[in-house]
Records
---
Amino acid sequence: MPHRADIRIRDPFVLAEETDRYYYLYGTTDGNVWSGPATGFDVYRSRDLEHWEGPYPAFRPKAGFWADRHFWAPEVYRYEGRYYMFASFKSEEKRRGTQVLAADGPLGPFEPLAGEPVTPRDWECLDGTLHIERDGTPWIVFCHEWLQVKDGRMAAMPLTRDLREAAGEPVVLFRASEAPWTVAGQDGTVYVTDGPYLHRLSSGELLMLWSSMSRHGYAIGIARSESGTALGPWTHDPEPLLPEDGGHGMLFRAFGGELMLAMHAPNGQPDERAVFCRIEEGDGTLKALRSR
């Protein structure tokens, strides 16, 4: 049974499944993260967030699947009785996009709901996350990638209730350079948007965790929706929640009731590991208490 420190993983996502009291850990698990043919996604499960059973093959592409590389950042949600995976894929012929897959259980196997991503065909997109509005409408929040637009954008789009396709046009929520804590890379014009995850505070305020580069490295910042919906408008906290060498965060509730942040750190390969950090909510914001 591997220990957390033994598992190389980027973009970790934890599903705390109440039905069997297991934590399920998904993420970018291919060894060749950036190039070459992709294998799929693995999943691990644990009772204590330290010792993990697996890996189990959550997704393996069947013959004819449109993508062959960059299988990134799977997120899994229990929604209307089934389990849905939002994940990014790419091929030489088609732009990167977020596709929705489904399974009857958290171990999979996950199968695509449709033959193509739900994100716009002509956009380079990644890191789609599911957000359910208070009226029950499902939305995807995702990144319009800096590789195409330089100043990375965060966007949102409504989905059909069955999550099979878009139910409206994409709306740009903000650009990475609008946050006061982000810094430009490469030639001074490139700003990264990565890893959105939406969380509603007990006060009702809607926050978004997202990642970019800070002056200390890969980081997680907080944006706030003035309307309390995915459409915002969004404002940015002046300083990141976690400022250095780790990111692509999400929040989950441990079985003991604690609010936990999952992220990967450090950011450099091949040393990426899942890091779990206890989060305290207070004074209208989130505070990281300790790492595990």
Note: The chain is about 0% helix and 50% strand.
---
Amino acid sequence: MSPEHEAEICKERNQIERAINGLKRFRALASGFDKRAANYFASCCLIATLTWL
């Protein structure tokens, strides 16, 4: 692989890791308190929206 290609992969992976770590700040989402998939998905959407704002 060329160094440019590796740098691009590292940038993309870093962005994904930062997004996931940002969501883990919220304890309920990180520990999976919600028992139903619909509630967990709603929590993910709400927290992602709050993080985006």
Note: The two ends are 37 Å apart (CA to CA).
---
Amino acid sequence: MNLYFVRHGETEKNKSKCYYGRLDVELTDNGILQAEKAGKLLEHIDFDKVYASEKKRAINTAEILLENKKYELMTDARINERDFGDFEGKDHKQLEVLYPEEWKQWCEDWKNVSPPGGESYIDLYKRVKNYMDDILKLNDENILIVTHGGVIRSIYCYILGGNMDYFWNFGSNNGDISVIKYEYGNLYIDSIIHV
């Protein structure tokens, strides 16, 4: 099985370096270009299934990737980006001023502490793990999954035995393609392609 994970194209919130997951924002012109480039790299692959998160930025990226091809695009809430609650749409400087105590707690324990009204990283990992457990039960050869940076990093942790300490050891740029293979019961990262 070949799993092709694509991080959605750039948005204005990416450019401004804000924390956001729940916010539903559009791709920038550069984000559209990134999706087009990723689409060129994947155009020779016939996908058995195509998934995207429920967010416009992921759905739009998937639609651009698959331009002129007929696929049923299935959305799944388990591969939505982390919900940052009251931290949504704000950068770290704003958070230090608006939520000094919550920001401090979050920085000290980023895995377990939830932003006010949001999810902890543990919450995100649990739903990503549940999604991956289900995907690996499928008997498909090629699956495209368009999602978010936090989800993709969580998938790397899943591959590495569920060790969440690896979360920050991988980059995930907008438009990146991560090819993950599942063969003979082994799951591994085959390549990470920057567009």
Note: The two ends are 23 Å apart (CA to CA).
---
Amino acid sequence: MRLTVFWNRMNQQFGEAYAASVAKDYVIAALGGRTIEQALADGEPAKKVWAAVVATFDVPARLQ
């Protein structure tokens, strides 16, 4: 998954402003207690990070 696809899905799920806030502030256990931004900066694949988002939030099937 490319980062552009990842951010597109984040924006569809949360809206642009809230997506940025979730990525910066929300700690996700499935990412080792890191935020989305931290996990991506550490080199985690966008696909793995998106899977953690899907597992954590109520993401509609069309975005999974």
Note: The longest strand covers residues 27-28.
